[in-house]
Amino acid sequence: MAKSDEQDFTHISENISLKGDISGNSNVRVAGKIIGSVSIQGDLVIERNGYIEGEVQARNAVIAGKIQGNISCLEKLTLEQSSVMIGNIKTKQLSIENGALFQGNCSMEERSKAKPTV
């Protein structure tokens, strides 16, 4: 997720609290608080002060804030150093930085079974 694509994100700013479900095709950046499920076909970024309590689905996600609930990513999930993830993870690729907190279970889809090169 390139920084140059900032204009392609729907931004929930730090002073906003939402109660309810969010769904859509776009990318979402969360600096505020969401109580409810988030189901998007794009990318999700949760900033350091961002918080989601509920089920989360996205193509890719970068978490620097907190999620309390399960998350499912079609491609890659990154838990940054400041992140707190309380819930189960389902993804193809997972990156957890030193200092991140994760409590739950992780299920990763098996990569396509390519023949090993000898």
Topology at a glance:
Layout: E1 9-12, E2 17-19, E3 22-24, E4 27-30, E5 33-35, E6 38-40, E7 43-46, E8 51-53, E9 56-63, E10 66-68, E11 71-79, E12 84-86, E13 89-91, E14 93-96, E15 101-103, E16 106-108
Parallel strand pairs: 1-4, 2-5, 3-6, 4-7, 5-8, 6-9, 7-9, 8-10, 9-11, 10-12, 11-13, 11-14, 12-15, 13-16
Structure write-up:
The chain has 118 residues and is an all-beta fold. It has one domain. The protein contains no helices and 16 strands. It is globular, with a radius of gyration of 14 Å.
Order of helices and strands: EEEEEEEEEEEEEEEE
Helical content (DSSP H or I, runs of 4+): under 10%
Q: Cα distance, first to last residue?
A: 34 Å
Share of β-strand residues: over 45%
Rg over C-alpha atoms, rounded to the nearest angstrom: 14 Å
Shape: globular
Mean pLDDT: 91
Low-confidence parts: none
- How many separate domains make up the residues? 1
Number of strands: 16
Biggest β-sheet strands, sense, barrel: 10 strands, parallel
Helix tally equals: 0
Determine the structural class based on helices, strands and strand pairing: mainly beta
